[in-house]
Specification:
2 strands; two-stranded antiparallel ribbon; Ribbon-helix-helix fold; mainly alpha; 118 residues
């Protein structure tokens, strides 16, 4: 039913766009990356329990130097790693409330313990 829209969204995700980002070292760098990466960068910046843009951008610079890659490439790599690591730890950048997630997990553990006792 939504095949066309899903297909269009996939095409859109892999188009690139450019933003000028003010890095913590005071330099403004032009970053070109996929629109998909920009969406996750915005989510990470808005997420209450996210890494914070300043921390993230410092890691991007450090990775670029250590890996001898462009800042644009480092930007995508670091963001991918941070989101993947955070979500593996139970955070969800697309969910509104961490408190709700924690409560759901606690209820799940409660029901598991209750089931084992029966």
């Amino acid at each position: 039913m939504l095949d066309y829209l899903v297909s269009r969204e996939q095409d859109e995700m892999f188009r690139t766009s450019v933003r000028d980002i003010d890095f913590p070292d005071g330099e403004i760098r032009r970053i070109e990356t996929y629109r998909l990466v920009w969406q996750w960068y915005d989510r990470a910046g808005e997420y209450e329990f996210g890494p914070g843009k300043e921390w993230l951008l410092n890691i991007v610079l450090k990775c670029a130097v250590e890996e001898s890659i462009s800042v644009s490439e480092s930007f995508g790599r670091v963001l991918n790693h941070v989101v993947k690591t955070d979500e593996a730890a139970g955070l969800d950048y697309t969910d509104d409330k961490l408190e709700l997630l924690v409560a759901k997990q606690a209820m799940g553990r409660f029901y598991e313990r209750k089931k084992k006792r029966l």
